Amino acid sequence: MPYVTAWDAEAVRQPKVVRRIGRGGEGIGFEDENPVTDRRHEALWVRSALAQGCGTPNFRGVNSPRQKRAMRYSLCQICGLTVLGPGADEPTLHLLGGDTPILEGETTAAPPLHAPCAVEAIENCPPLGRGWAAALVDYSPLWGVAGEVYDRETLKPLPIPEGRPGDLTYVSVNDEKIRWTLASFTAVSLHGVTPVSMNELRVMAAEDARRAATGATAARL
Ligand SMILES: [Zn+2]
What we know:
- It is a single chain.
- The protein is α+β, with helices and mostly antiparallel strands.
- The chain has one domain.
- Helices cover about 20% and strands about 30% of the residues.
- The protein is built from three helices and 13 strands, in the order ββββββαββαβββββα.
- The strands form four sheets. Strands 4, 5, 8, 10, 11 and 12 form a six-stranded mixed β-sheet that branches.
- A hairpin with a 2-residue loop joins strand 2 (about 15-20) and strand 3 (about 25-30).
- The longest helix has 23 residues, at about 200-220.
- The two termini are about 35 Å apart.
- About 30% of the residues are buried.
């Protein structure tokens, strides 16, 4: 079960969204807002329980707190373990759905992953059967959030631009719209992008497995 997948017991009632004057100016807030847990990067954040494994998994949904944690600590979106190797400057692997290659500077809410986890996801995740792109990425700084932008007059969510149902709007931390955004996920931008083919992924996965086996032998000695 992918680490970031949402479970039905994690859905919680969302409080009423109200107009609020904050430090950065006017925007949306919750009626009973907790400034520590409900706000980050000036955006308001959806509430979600942490109850991994409880109820049934919602494969189309991603748990907001686990996604944020995976982005912040470079955890694999599939197994939840760190993707950082012994060298801090090593590139990280990213996998996106769709049939276009990953572009330099592209923004995404998908956390990184391990090569063996990527191969497993491509082989078992039906949406990726319709197309995917993988790349090694040198640098992925915080870019903004993915969420719903609210109308300043009606305080209702605005339609998603070029709307595909269920998709979210990406809002940069430098955009004043961030104070009108109910955020679900952290978004990063991808830089130093080197595309990776299926064959290269399999080689990387085999190399990871070999390294893991060598590490286990060394630990036993
Ligand atoms: Zn993994």
